[in-house]
Specification:
With 288 residues, the protein is mainly beta. The chain has one domain: Distorted Sandwich (Beta-galactosidase, Chain A, domain 5), CATH 2.70.98.70. It contains two helices and 22 strands. Strand 2 and strand 3 form a beta hairpin. The model has no long low-confidence stretch (mean pLDDT 92).
Length: 288
């Protein structure tokens, strides 16, 4: 189950327009404090005041795109497309949570995969950070590794509170795996191997980082848990991110992710089938 929070926030009123949350196999994989009932109640978690700071309204604790290391302004987005077709469900929304910046995010659920396409546009130069958090133990894919960073990426909007910041280096699409197998099954009847595999196309000039932030964890009841997170930083007037999220109970079914001519991405599965995805395609195919 995937949610795309673009409209009026029903819970905490957090600064999280175009936030996504993901649940699979009876577990919460990722959520934002403002988009789910992620309340400070339950078993004690981390004592680190830096991690506890993320369990609030700030944008960096959400799965969003942050501009210029600043919190979003209160905003209500617009739904551009909604297609509930059972085998290829799509939602696309646009929000302007930063002055002069338009963020269009499309999310599709098909073949057990979550496809996420982001387009950020402005007439001025900005620094954009794609931010994604997921419960579990994080491991970079083959050919990727991290180098510790001594300084935070900014001193604003909780950027100075992240823990264990590392600069990622590698070639081709980035691949990260969050292993949730050790998560408590207190609220789940599903046990055994369980993971989230993220693949994301590189962006020219982009910088990739991992770090720890904090989220209240419905799977373990810890408030908060230390959550491995991805930040993909791009500078310029515009930016596009193409991401595949794959909840797994075994081996990954994705063979490759490549750019699609004209924008978007092409996902090739292990059985040779191809899935093409673009924002224009999603908007045009939605029922009028």
């Amino acid at each position: 189950m995937v949610t795309l929070d673009y409209g009026r926030n029903p819970v905490h009123g957090a600064l999280d327009r175009n936030q996504i949350a993901l649940c699979a196999f009876g577990r919460v994989f990722t959520q934002g404090p403002g988009s789910s009932y992620n309340l400070s109640a339950g078993a004690k978690g981390s004592d680190d005041k830096r991690l506890r700071a993320f369990c609030g309204h700030d944008s960096l604790g959400q799965n969003v795109v942050v501009a210029d290391a600043r919190d979003q302004l209160p905003a209500v987005g617009t739904l551009l497309a909604w297609n509930p077709r059972e085998d290829y469900q799509v939602a696309v929304s646009r929000a302007a949570a930063y002055p002069g910046v338009s963020h269009t995010r499309g999310v599709a659920l098909t073949e057990g995969l979550v496809l996420v396409l982001d387009r950020i546009e402005s007439e001025e130069d900005h620094t954009y950070d794609f931010v994604y958090h997921n419960f579990g133990k994080l491991t970079p894919g083959e050919g990727w590794g991290g180098t510790p960073e001594e300084r935070p990426l900014a001193q604003t909007a909780l950027y100075d509170k992240v823990v264990d910041l590392k600069r990622l280096a590698g070639t081709g699409p980035v691949q990260l795996t969050w292993d949730l197998s050790d998560e408590s099954a207190a609220r789940s009847k599903t046990n055994g191997p369980m993971a989230l595999v993220l693949r994301q196309l590189p962006v020219p000039g982009g910088e990739l980082y991992t770090c720890l932030t904090g989220l209240n964890n419905p799977n373990t009841h810890e408030c908060p848990s230390a959550v491995p997170s991805l930040l993909h930083r791009v500078k310029g007037k515009s930016a596009e991110f193409a991401t595949v999220l794959e909840p797994c109970r075994g081996a990954s079914r994705v063979q490759s992710v490549a750019p699609r001519p004209g924008g978007g991405m092409v996902v090739t599965l292990s059985d040779g089938r191809r899935i093409e995805a673009s924002l224009e395609q999603w908007i045009a195919s939605a029922p009028k």
